[in-house]
Write a structure and sequence with these properties.
By secondary structure, the chain is of the alpha/beta class. It folds into 2 domains: 1-81 and 166-250, Rossmann fold (3-Layer(aba) Sandwich); 91-164, no CATH class. The protein has helices at residues 44-52, 74-80, 97-109, 121-135, 150-162, 180-193, 206-212, 230-235, 237-244; strands spanning 6-15, 18-28, 33-37, 59-64, 67-68, 82-85, 168-172, 198-202, 215-220, 223-228. Helix 3 packs across helix 4, helix 3 (97-109) runs parallel beside helix 5 and helix 4 (121-135) crosses helix 5 (150-162).
């Protein structure tokens, strides 16, 4: 598959004397799960902030479906088809799961009033229920979001991002702070999203990365050291030396 959904070319960001992102070339194919890994301080967070629009690059380009987006503000990138889940869960904790989803859907449809009581209420309600089912929260729609376990809150965060119908979804350490069962549910959810959109997965759980990724890029000192399949990255001597070390790679 040679088609490219998303790419960066020569992406660079400097903070005073520190080059955090150093001429990064990255390409994602439609429908693939592309993992971005690397040691702490490698520049992963900076790169994700550049892609999402939280930071502006000093040089380089960012393209989504061939459209240059590096100068667009965050909300315009969302409209172009790029959504992001942050390391820290971003939900409305005082609202129910259902109302969280309705507010997100309302924003997408640019409704002027609250979704309930409007002519489109039934349609939005159906979409909210479909989103909840997609992420495995259909049984807790009327639970207050802030009272849910951490893993379920992360699932809701993904649902909110999916409400924008993204073409590219950035998942920034989606399994951070989770126990084994929660991580497994999140991995299953990410796996179900494969093929429906491009996913850029930033994750330290290497077992999850090796299970989920179609391809992996390894970032070290702000540069892409290697890109390849799971097997190619596991066999790469340079990657083993600087990141994987003695971890089980088979």
């Amino acid at each position: 598959m040679n088609e490219v959904l998303f790419r960066t070319r020569g992406l660079r960001k400097r903070f005073r004397g520190l080059v955090a992102t150093d001429d990064v070339d990255l390409a994602l194919r439609p429908g693939e799960i592309h993992a971005l890994i690397g040691p702490n301080g490698a520049g992963k967070s900076t790169l994700v902030n550049l892609i999402s629009g939280a930071l502006r690059p000093d040089a380089g380009t960012i393209e989504l479906e061939g459209r240059r987006i590096e100068t667009l503000p965050v909300h315009e990138r969302v409209r172009a088809g790029l959504s992001r889940c942050f390391q820290i869960t971003s939900i409305y904790p005082a609202l129910t799961v259902r109302d969280n989803l309705l507010f997100a859907l309302q924003g997408r449809h640019r409704a002027a009033a609250r979704p309930w009581g409007t002519r489109r209420a039934a349609g939005l309600a159906d979409q909210a229920e479909a989103l909840a089912e997609q992420v495995g929260l259909q049984t807790v729609l009327d639970r207050v979001a802030g009272a849910l376990p951490h893993g379920a809150q992360r699932q809701l965060d993904v649902a909110l991002a999916l409400s924008n119908q993204p073409k590219l979804l950035l998942l920034d350490e989606p399994m951070a702070g989770m126990g084994g069962e929660e991580s497994e549910r999140m991995a299953d959810l990410i796996d179900r999203l494969r093929g429906h959109m491009g996913l850029l997965l930033i994750e330290h759980d290497m077992a999850a990365v090796f299970r989920l990724a179609d391809r992996i890029s390894v970032l070290v000192y702000g540069r892409v050291l290697a890109t390849g399949t799971v097997q190619e990255i596991q066999r790469n001597a340079d990657v083993k030396a600087v990141y994987l070390g003695e971890e089980v790679t088979g």
